[in-house]
Amino acid sequence: MSHKQKMPFLPLNIAVHTVSDTRIEASDTSGLALKQRLLAAGHNLADKKITPDDVFHIRAVVSDWIHRD
Question: Which among 41, 61, 40 is positioned nearest to 52, based on CA atoms?
């Protein structure tokens, strides 16, 4: 395939993880913006989580995502 040929679009499954001690779903403007933009681009929202700024919470969310089918 030459570099001038266009590759077919392949939508990605994307998870959005907001790490914050103060945000809730209603005030998570950055997570909402990411969600809207990835959906508008034709990708899939695999999951969206908000967790406190704590290594154990972050690790639990990422581990769950890694082990999903």
Answer: 61
Domain count within the chain: 1
Instruction: Check the CA dihedral 66-15-50-30 and report its sign.
Output: positive
Instruction: Please report whether residue 56 resides in a domain.
Output: yes
**68: CB partners within 8 A, 6+ apart:** 46
Number of other CB atoms surrounding residue 38 within 10 Å: 19
Per-residue pLDDT tens digits for 11-51: 999 999 999 999 998 999 999 999 999 999 999 999 999 99
Q: Residue 44's domain spans which residues?
A: 14-67
